[in-house]
Amino acid sequence: MSSRIIPVQPFDYVVFGATGDLTKRKLIPALYHRFKDGQFDEQSRIIGVSRSKLTDGEFQKLASDAIAQFVEKDYQDAATIERFLKIFSYVVNDVSDEAGWGDLRKALRDDPKIIRAFYLAVAPDLFEPIAEQLAKTKVYRRDARVVIEKPLGHDLASSMEINDGVAKIFKEDQVYRIDHYLGKETVQNLLALRFANTLFEPIWNSAHIDHVQLTVAESVGAGTRGYYDESGALRDMIQNHMLQLLCLVAMEPPASDDANALRDEKLKVLRALKPITNGDVSKTTVRGQYRGVKSEATAVASYQDELPDDKKGSHTETFVALKAEIQNWRWSGVPFYLRTGKRMAERVSEICIQFKPIPHSIFDHAEGAPRANKLIIRLQPDEGVKLMMMIKDPGPGGMRLREVPLNLSFAETFTERTPEAYERLLMDVIRGSQTLFMRRDELEAAWSWVDPIRQAWDRSSEPPQSYSAGTWGPSGAVALIERDGRTWYEGNN
Ligand code: BG6
């Protein structure tokens, strides 16, 4: 069998915002795993950049602490960590400080065979000034890559402004917009499931599918992240992660796995989404906010309790459920129900494809009426795919029907560690593969669809519906789907 680790070309990865949370929690651990697996070696370099006055040694210490805290214990190997830390160096740089840019230039190698990538783990208002400085100080190269991630704006206009700023220097084929959901193994598996099997594609349409449900539930709260109250669940989860999932489920088969072929198809889905405007917003969307629960055993704070005093009374939603429709031949009449929230009953991300019922039952006298098939794609945790089917309950006693899952559990089938999304995405940047990154037009199409919902909510004086922490959201979300004679799939129905 050929090796599964394909080494990448040596690189200089420059991380702006090197002392920030994202770098510590995600980027350093992800790069460590790729290094440990031999995907790159000491010929590559990681150059941290930020305003804090650190030495190389202090930055290496920060990296070593991040590994200790955020890499699973079983994978922390002292000899590997020591080798890994040697590729770390640090440059003190304030965007407006000329000296810092000179130091960065010196830290980079001029060899064109060494891939140059800039990860901007900083606030989006710094993207444009950084890009301009990179060009001005000749750190920019036409083959360099720039990585950016959300919040890429808070609406269409601000997102365009950010993209325009970056585009002053970087061409679209150099820009890698991260949506980390696309780097998740199980999300990529959706592509394999749909396009590497003949079974599903012929029935993947409105003739056979009744509706689709997408749930991304988190058990954690919004915490004290200042950003969240400005954003809310619609911008934080629906505009990006959930619409990307919807695209992968709904898109036409692309001609190849070429980045633009795939992104063209996703874009068509986004553009075919039926606008949810004023009058429809109250019928097809529900927003919620969690309230605390107190019992003898536990006490969970409400969203309001977590807010600083000047934000109390905020109408920011921590939960959204909505019904989306795709106006094209394949999906006409097939609703896509999306829901996501914080402090929900459990952490689960799942896609449920509900097929239509059988056209005629010959089992009128059998116990247990035939239930329509469901395909459940579990993204996290316990990744796997389940096809719910009807069988005859074995044994005597007449024809009794029972629903059982044809179950592919990844955890049981594959024993190797599943790489984290950032591992795949960081290496794709070096490989020059944009397939799992959002193109500008996709991002803007997603904002165009989300903006009218947000605006209608902002115009309304109604607060979000309240739901108890640890539940599946407000009653309005149940009503939203029940009005259509359907129910949310919660693992047991
Ligand atoms: C982030 C959101 O993009 O995704 C967070 O900003 C959310 O609010 C997170 O918690 C969820 O990601 P995951 O990988 O834990 O499902």
Automatic annotation (TrEMBL):
<dbReference type="Pfam" id="PF02781">
    <property type="entry name" value="G6PD_C"/>
</dbReference>
<feature type="domain" description="Glucose-6-phosphate dehydrogenase C-terminal">
    <location>
        <begin position="191"/>
        <end position="488"/>
    </location>
</feature>
<comment type="similarity">
    <text>Belongs to the glucose-6-phosphate dehydrogenase family.</text>
</comment>
<feature type="binding site">
    <location>
        <position position="184"/>
    </location>
    <ligand>
        <name>substrate</name>
    </ligand>
</feature>
<protein>
    <recommendedName>
        <fullName>Glucose-6-phosphate 1-dehydrogenase</fullName>
        <ecNumber>1.1.1.49</ecNumber>
    </recommendedName>
</protein>
<feature type="binding site">
    <location>
        <position position="51"/>
    </location>
    <ligand>
        <name>NADP(+)</name>
    </ligand>
</feature>
<dbReference type="GO" id="GO:0006006">
    <property type="term" value="P:glucose metabolic process"/>
</dbReference>
<dbReference type="InterPro" id="IPR001282">
    <property type="entry name" value="G6P_DH"/>
</dbReference>
<keyword id="KW-0119">Carbohydrate metabolism</keyword>
<dbReference type="GO" id="GO:0004345">
    <property type="term" value="F:glucose-6-phosphate dehydrogenase activity"/>
</dbReference>
<dbReference type="InterPro" id="IPR036291">
    <property type="entry name" value="NAD(P)-bd_dom_sf"/>
</dbReference>
<feature type="binding site">
    <location>
        <begin position="17"/>
        <end position="24"/>
    </location>
    <ligand>
        <name>NADP(+)</name>
    </ligand>
</feature>
<dbReference type="GO" id="GO:0009051">
    <property type="term" value="P:pentose-phosphate shunt, oxidative branch"/>
</dbReference>
<dbReference type="Pfam" id="PF00479">
    <property type="entry name" value="G6PD_N"/>
</dbReference>
<feature type="binding site">
    <location>
        <position position="342"/>
    </location>
    <ligand>
        <name>substrate</name>
    </ligand>
</feature>
<keyword id="KW-0560">Oxidoreductase</keyword>
<feature type="domain" description="Glucose-6-phosphate dehydrogenase NAD-binding">
    <location>
        <begin position="14"/>
        <end position="189"/>
    </location>
</feature>
<comment type="function">
    <text>Catalyzes the oxidation of glucose 6-phosphate to 6-phosphogluconolactone.</text>
</comment>
<feature type="binding site">
    <location>
        <position position="218"/>
    </location>
    <ligand>
        <name>substrate</name>
    </ligand>
</feature>
<dbReference type="InterPro" id="IPR019796">
    <property type="entry name" value="G6P_DH_AS"/>
</dbReference>
<feature type="binding site">
    <location>
        <position position="236"/>
    </location>
    <ligand>
        <name>substrate</name>
    </ligand>
</feature>
<feature type="binding site">
    <location>
        <position position="150"/>
    </location>
    <ligand>
        <name>NADP(+)</name>
    </ligand>
</feature>
<feature type="binding site">
    <location>
        <position position="180"/>
    </location>
    <ligand>
        <name>substrate</name>
    </ligand>
</feature>
<dbReference type="GO" id="GO:0050661">
    <property type="term" value="F:NADP binding"/>
</dbReference>
<comment type="pathway">
    <text>Carbohydrate degradation; pentose phosphate pathway; D-ribulose 5-phosphate from D-glucose 6-phosphate (oxidative stage): step 1/3.</text>
</comment>
<keyword id="KW-0521">NADP</keyword>
<dbReference type="GO" id="GO:0005829">
    <property type="term" value="C:cytosol"/>
</dbReference>
<keyword id="KW-0313">Glucose metabolism</keyword>
<feature type="binding site">
    <location>
        <begin position="94"/>
        <end position="95"/>
    </location>
    <ligand>
        <name>NADP(+)</name>
    </ligand>
</feature>
<dbReference type="InterPro" id="IPR022674">
    <property type="entry name" value="G6P_DH_NAD-bd"/>
</dbReference>
<dbReference type="InterPro" id="IPR022675">
    <property type="entry name" value="G6P_DH_C"/>
</dbReference>
<feature type="active site" description="Proton acceptor">
    <location>
        <position position="241"/>
    </location>
</feature>
